[in-house]
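User: Hi! I have a protein structure encoded as tokens and I'd like to know what sequence might fold into it. I'm fairly new to this, so please keep things simple.
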């Protein structure tokens, strides 16, 4: 009996501790995951090409804001661009569509060309059509491979974590248009 009590005391204090931790907060509860898929159980690798069109009559990336010193900055520091680009299976823009990266890139580096990327990668074709992942990260022109975190997702990618690695495939210095190869690893 005494032994049983000794066993029960730590159990009881664990309950008390749990209650004192959760109760005063009052705004959150732990709930049961509505379905098993909430536990990350697979790593999905997605490969595509990201077409960034800044030139011509129908650009898919447009600068919407600049700072007072942006025009005299060699790196375009302070430029904010809004983007609705195209993602395709192959490097050719006419190859099969995978999705659309919708978001913004902001020039945030005063010394070298560098961007803050804030994007929803919206998948529009195939088994992930309608699902999205959110990409947020540092895209520095000084790096050959730019690595950016995947900080969440929706649909098939609900509660996703992961990372994207981006490498310039073609950059046209005259027009400013670029094709960037992406390898995205999503744990979901
Ligand atoms: C910067 O350049 C743009 C495009 O040439 C121009 O429209 C804008 O007025 C300039 N801004 C400043 C603050 O000089
Ligand atoms: C680069 O862009 C310029 C200006 O739009 C265009 O004339 C040229 O054909 C492009 N080069 C390539 C290799 O696509």
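Assistant: Happy to help. Inverse folding works backwards from shape to sequence: for each of the 188 positions I chose a residue that suits the local structure. Here it is:
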């Amino acid at each position: 009996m005494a032994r049983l009590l000794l066993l029960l005391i730590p159990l009881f204090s664990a309950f008390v501790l749990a209650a004192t931790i959760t109760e005063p907060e009052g705004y959150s509860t732990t709930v049961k995951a509505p379905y098993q898929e909430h536990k990350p159980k697979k790593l999905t690798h997605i490969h595509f090409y990201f077409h960034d069109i800044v030139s011509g009559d129908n650009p898919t990336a447009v600068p919407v804001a600049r700072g007072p010193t942006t025009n005299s900055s060699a790196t375009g520091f302070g430029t904010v661009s809004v983007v609705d680009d195209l993602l395709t299976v192959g490097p050719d823009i006419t190859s099969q569509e995978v999705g659309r990266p919708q978001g913004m890139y902001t020039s945030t580096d005063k010394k070298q060309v560098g961007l803050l990327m804030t994007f929803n990668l919206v998948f529009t074709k195939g088994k992930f059509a309608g699902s999205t992942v959110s990409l947020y990260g540092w895209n520095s022109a000084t790096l050959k491979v730019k690595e950016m975190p995947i900080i969440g997702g929706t649909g098939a990618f609900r509660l996703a974590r992961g990372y994207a690695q981006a490498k310039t495939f073609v950059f046209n210095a005259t027009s400013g248009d670029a094709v960037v190869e992406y390898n995205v690893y999503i744990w979901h």
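A useful reference point when you look it over: The chain is about 10% helix and 45% strand. Feel free to ask if any position seems puzzling.
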